[in-house]
Structures are given as C-alpha cells and as structure tokens.
Amino acid sequence: xxxxxxxLEHIIDCIDLINDYTEYDKFKFMNxxxxxxxxxxxxxxxxxxxxxxxxxxxxxxxEINWKAISGFRNILVHDYFGxxxxxxxxxxxxxxxxxxxxxxxxx
Length: 107
Description:
- By secondary structure, the protein is mainly α.
- It has a single domain (4-105), classed as Four Helix Bundle (Hemerythrin (Met), subunit A) (Up-down Bundle), CATH 1.20.120.
- Helices cover 81% and strands 0% of the residues.
- It has 6 helices and no strands.
- It has helices spanning 2-22, 26-31, 33-51, 55-60, 66-78, 85-106.
- α1 (2-22) packs antiparallel against α3 (33-51) and α3 crosses α5 (66-78).
- It is globular and about 40 Å long.
- The chain starts with a helix and ends with a helix.
- The relative contact order is 0.18.
C-alpha cells in the first residue's frame, strides 16, 4: 500500500494541476496550446500512474473504471496529432472531479 499511496497522491496532484492550468475555463483550454500541452501531459501522467497501482488495490475498487483510464492514456500517447480536445475537455469537466474524490477515498 505504501507504493500505492505515492501513486494515488501523484494522481491527485495531476488532477489539481489540470484544474490550475485550465481554471475550469473551456475557452482558455481550447485557445492556448501551452495549456493544452500541460493538461494533456498531466492526463497522460495520471493514467500512467494508475497503471502502476497494485492489482490488489484495483481489485478492491471495481467502481473505478481502470480499463477506461488506461485506454484514454493509450489514445493520448499513441495518437497525439489526432487528440480530440472536446473529448479531453469532457474528461476534465465530467470525469476528473469524481475521479479525484474516488482517489482521495483510497488514501
């Protein structure tokens, strides 16, 4: 659990950075390449960190869609030029707040 805790804290930090970078402002995200790069990098790091969590922790928390997080990471890493910014924003706006709460509960 010690290593899991480090990764969980890192995931929460990534979510907080994404919120800091976007300031919950879609216009800012859509119109700043620098913000997009920072956000996409943190989404990637967040997803990679979930892949490093122990299988035991993941098995204990099936309410978190681990496969979807991993799949989103693969899209970010392998299809950079085809990244759908609207899809990224939807994740930021609709998924990250709940994910943050879920990960906080795991600490």
